[in-house]
Amino acid sequence: MLHERHGCPVTTDSRLGENDRSATGYVAPPRFWEIVDRFFAEPETSVLGWERAVDAQTRIKAAVRDCIATHGDSAGHLCIVSHGGVGTLLLCDLLGEPISRNHGQPIAGGGCFFAFDGATWMLEHGWRDIVP
User: Has residue 23 been placed in a domain?
Assistant: First the structure.
């Protein structure tokens, strides 16, 4: 949609995927949310074989920095689309705070965004609903 409306180039980067949960495969709620709580509460632990939150955060930060270096235009505008957990891990880093679910999307079902300055790695605003 962004490409069609604004001519933005579209690329994909597997490093912007959510944490690797292949060790358990699909887990249905409410058990899934219990595991997610542990993932964020114990970022240096592989919960049930899942990728550790600290490793996912490192991977995500590298992908975002590479994306900015490769695709940022002269005005610095860039839209990175990913999952809520990915955004939460990135947002924790932008805030300079430990990994925590406290900075997760505030709206159930997603459709949220935040903005930051890629050159300074400073948050411009936190989560907002994508639909006004």
Answer: yes
